[in-house]
Amino acid sequence: MFRDSTITTKDILKSVRQIEIKTSRIVNSYFAGQYHSAFKGHGIEFDEVRKYNIGDDVRAMDWKVSARYNEPFIKRFKEERELNVVILADFSASTDFGLTKTKHNLIVELSALLSFSALKNNDKVGLLIFTDTIEKLIPLNKGKNHVLRIIRELIEFEPKSAETNIANALEYFNKIQKRDSITFLITDACSDLPKKQIDITRKRNDFVVCLVNDRLEYEMPHLLGTLVLSDLENDEYVYFDMGNKNVREAYINEQSKMLEDKLQFLKRNSIENIVLDTSSNYINDVMKFFIKRRR
After folding, report:
1. DSSP string, 132-145
2. What is the pLDDT of residues 46-76, one digit of tens each?
3. Can you tell me the distance from the alpha carbon of 1 to that of 59, in angstroms, rounded to the nearest whole number?
4. Biggest alpha carbon distance in the chain?
5. What DSSP assignment string belongs to 101-123?
6. Fewer Cβ atoms within 10 Å of its own Cβ: the N or the C terminal residue of the chain?
7. pTM of the predicted protein model
8. Burial class (CB in 10 A: 0-12, 13-18, 19+), 73
9. Which H/E stretch holds residue 76?
10. Hey, which residues does 125 pair with through a beta bridge?
11. Residues 99-126: pLDDT tens digits?
C-alpha cells in the first residue's frame, strides 16, 4: 500500500480516502473521547463573572465587582482546551520490515489516527518526518484539509536517507517548537533512544514514545538451511544456520533483551510509552494507554 515507487496520483488519493474513512469511523465511534480525556489543556482562561453561591471557592471572589454591586461575585475560568499535537514519524528504511504489514504502514496508520483525533477535538496538529536527517516538516495547523494534507504526505513521501537519528530529530524539533505540545515520537523499536534530547523535549512538552515492532524479530521461523537477514539501513548481511538450536536461541534472546532494555529505560526515566506490534490491534493498545493516562 505504501513505499511503492510505481503508485500513481490516483492510487495515492484512493489510499488517502481509505485511511480517512477507516480512521474517521474509529475516531467518531469511541476513540476521540478517550483522546480528549487523556490530554488536558496547559492553562486556563477567563470565562465569566457570576453571583456567589454558597459553597463556591472564596478564593475566586472578584472583589472589585463585588464592591461595585455591593454583593459577592466570583470569577469563573475554563480550561484552555485547544492543544498542539506534533507527530514525529520515523521513516527510516528499517521500518519497511514486517510480517503481516510493515512497521512503516503501522506508523502511517497511527499518525493518521492521531491526526483525525486532533481534528475531532479542534486541536492543531503538525508532522515532522525524519530519518537521520529532517525529511519533511508540516507546521501546526487545524482543519480537515490540513489533516488530509498530512495523510497524503505520510502515504506518498519518499525519504532521501535510509538511516535513523532520533537525537537529531529531537534537537531540530526543540529549536523550532515555540509552544508546548502533545508530542508523539513514533519510531522503530530497534532505534536508539537518546536520553539527553528526550529529557529536553519532556521539559516543555507532553511527550509519548511509541515503539513499533514486529513479532518476526522475536520469533525465528522454523526453517532448514541458512537464513540471510539484511540491515535495511546500511545493506549489511547476517547469516544464520537455522538448523542450529543454539544460534536460534541466541538470536531470540538478544532481540528480546534489546526490547526489554528499552522498556526498562523508559520505565526508569518515567517516560510515557506505547509498545505496538504490526500483527496486533494497535487501536486497542493506544486506547489502553489513553485510559491508563486518564486515570
Report:
1. SSEEEEEEEE-SHH
2. 667 888 888 777 778 889 989 989 999 888 7
3. 58
4. 91
5. S-HHHHHHHHHHHHHHHHHHTT-
6. C
7. 0.79
8. buried
9. strand 73-79
10. 85, 141
11. 788 999 999 999 999 999 999 888 999 9
